[in-house]
Design goal:
The model is unreliable at 230-242 and 268-274 (pLDDT under 50). β4 and β5 form a beta hairpin. The protein has helices spanning 2-13, 15-22, 29-36, 52-66, 79-94, 125-128, 147-153, 175-182, 202-212, 214-220, 235-241, 256-261; strands at residues 41-46, 71-76, 104-105, 109-111, 117-122, 136-140, 163-168, 188-192. Helix content is 40%, strand content 14%. The longest helix has 16 residues, at 79-94.
Length: 274
């Protein structure tokens, strides 16, 4: 009995140990880092087939098993993608040696006997607003999830102090995934290009580069944020055009003409009109 308690404690304290000994899955070093991380905000910018879905599914199941009453949401751009990630969680649950019968088990949700819930949702702001007190949010293919949904799910963590993970390959320099990756907010950022994945051969990557071209290859396999394919100007050029030292031209002044005249004859790079 005491040995069972000690084993349970080991698994509860270490998702890595739980993965190795219970699920018989040996994580990559970066997966161990993410599984064991205490960070509340995690960004996974990882290549296709790098193992981000596997690690996130293990994290979701581990949370549900060892934190009774947890609410875990899996969010994806489409119903198909949501169900795929959820199926991975279900398959891991079926691998448990002493699993109990689920109180609820369907294509998009499961309820454990300890009252923990794992719910999979497609992207859509209206479908998620009824949830509160969420303990873990995993957003799959985050670069393709609508920004409005992302802004709607963040308040769900306000009271619970829960955790959020955004995982994706890049899809242009746009959207909340790119903004959080490049922004100043406090996230743990993990980047795993395909060249760092031992299961993907150099020969396969070279073939993919030739077939896809640099733009798609760099995003899908090298985790690089490229300019969107329909952009007229490069993102970096637009950012470089902004200046903080130009005094705005305010047209709401009683007489804006003096404001304009003081620029005459000068080397002015830009005029900002409110």
């Amino acid at each position: 009995m005491q040995e069972e308690i000690i084993s349970d404690l080991r698994y509860a304290l270490s998702p890595d140990t739980f993965s190795r000994e219970i699920l018989e899955i040996t994580p990559d070093p970066w997966q161990i880092e993410v599984m064991m991380s205490p960070a509340k905000r995690i960004l996974l910018n990882c290549s296709r087939q790098s193992g981000k879905s596997t690690s996130s599914a293990i994290i979701a199941l581990h949370r549900a098993l060892y934190h009774p009453g947890s609410l875990i949401l899996l969010i994806s751009p489409s119903l198909r993608q949501s169900s795929e990630l959820f199926k991975k969680v279900q398959s891991f649950y079926k691998m448990l040696p002493d699993k109990s019968k689920l109180k609820e088990d369907n294509k998009l949700s499961m309820v454990l006997d300890n009252q923990s819930r794992i719910i999979s949702l497609p992207s859509g702001e209206a479908t998620i607003r009824g949830f509160s007190g969420v303990d873990l949010i995993i957003e799959d293919e985050a670069s393709r999830v609508d920004d409005s949904l992302y802004y709607a799910i963040r308040p769900m963590l306000a009271v619970s102090g829960g955790k959020i993970m955004l995982m994706s390959t890049p899809w242009g320099k746009r959207g909340h995934f790119f903004e959080e990756w490049t922004g100043p907010n406090d996230w743990q950022r993990v980047k795993i290009p395909a060249t760092d994945c031992p299961r993907i051969s150099p020969e396969f990557l070279e073939e993919e580069r030739k077939s896809l071209g640099d733009w798609w290859f760099d995003q899908e396999y090298m985790c690089e944020f490229g300019d969107t394919s329909d952009s007229l100007f490069r993102y970096d050029d637009i950012e470089a055009a902004f200046r903080d030292d130009i005094e705005p031209l305010r047209l709401d002044e009683p007489d804006p003409i003096p404001n304009i005249q003081k620029y005459q004859g000068k080397d002015v790079e830009a005029l900002v009109i409110d």
